[in-house]
Amino acid sequence: MAVSKRTPNRPKDAPMPLRKKDAQRASAPVIELADLKDRLGYFVRRLQVAIFQDFIRRLARIDVSPAQFSVLVVIAANPGLSQSELAKTLGIERARLVRMLHGLELRKLTVRLPSSADGRWHALELTREGEKLLARAKVLAAEHEEAMREKLGPERHRQMLELARGFDG
Amino acid sequence: MAVSKRTPNRPKDAPMPLRKKDAQRASAPVIELADLKDRLGYFVRRLQVAIFQDFIRRLARIDVSPAQFSVLVVIAANPGLSQSELAKTLGIERARLVRMLHGLELRKLTVRLPSSADGRWHALELTREGEKLLARAKVLAAEHEEAMREKLGPERHRQMLELARGFDG
DNA sequence: TATTGTTATACTCTATAACTATA
DNA sequence: TATAGTTATAGAGTATAACAATA
After folding, report:
1. A112: which of A100, A122, B131, B156 fits an S-S bond (Cβ 3.0–4.6 Å)?
2. A73, A80, A144: residue with CB nearest B1
3. What residue numbers bound the domain in which B71 lies?
């Protein structure tokens, strides 16, 4: 497209001669990423957004977000753990977790039991209903993972999982 | 830690015998990730957050976010492109980009020039000040990338960049 | 009618700080 | 005093819808 700054003396109503660049962009715009090509964060972010979009879409029917899924999975595998432990494990703010658990509790999926070991703690557990929903969520999450494997290619998927898994904090 | 549900008959004020599990968690809590270990999205998300945290911290002194950096880079490499093209390229909502460009324009870093090719378009460009700030940002971003290379290990960094870069949408 | 940029709204997430109760 | 959970707030990001100007 033409840039006024570069043709400041041409009247605005004059016919606009298309330069080669204009014609190219009009039919098949190829935008240069330049320095972003060397930024790992840029590509990891784009990949993460794409993965989450697929996950969110597939688990929309049971209304489970990626964060909620991770919370349900970790509680199920570590019944009785505290909110602080859970928050630290998943990198969620404790304050955020409070509201999240409130929502899950309203849906009768999780419970905060008083810990008999320390009066300040809550022992987190899934309800029977929570376990049943998690079972359904795991099926959908496995389908999501398989879709990602197909989209990325099995070999790239395997390598990425291995590389990302090996990274801790 | 002890879970009340599992010892419902013990009075709350009775002394609490520590089971082995309790003692373990108190000293070195090892929380099981279970199913999350097979979720690429989980690890990619954790990695992306870690990368962004470093980037944000390093570019805080010039007040440039990852999204702002990507916008400045792409405008600089494609002067005169439209907001729609920019938004589509970076996966940013057009409505979001409007507010972002408003902020950058208030800081005299970018300008929206009227396009002489199409009255609906704005031709985006950096100001001289925007170019100067971007130059500084690129230096800090390169330092950030080097830090990531060290943190991940050069080989993992190279492989991840190659794998993630090869993924499109 | 379709597109570009814009405004407005609601919702989620992040980042803080402060408060309570318990230790 | 230190910690666990809670509440409140501000800011950023996402997702929509609707609108005016222009094609």
Report:
1. A122
2. A80
3. 47-165
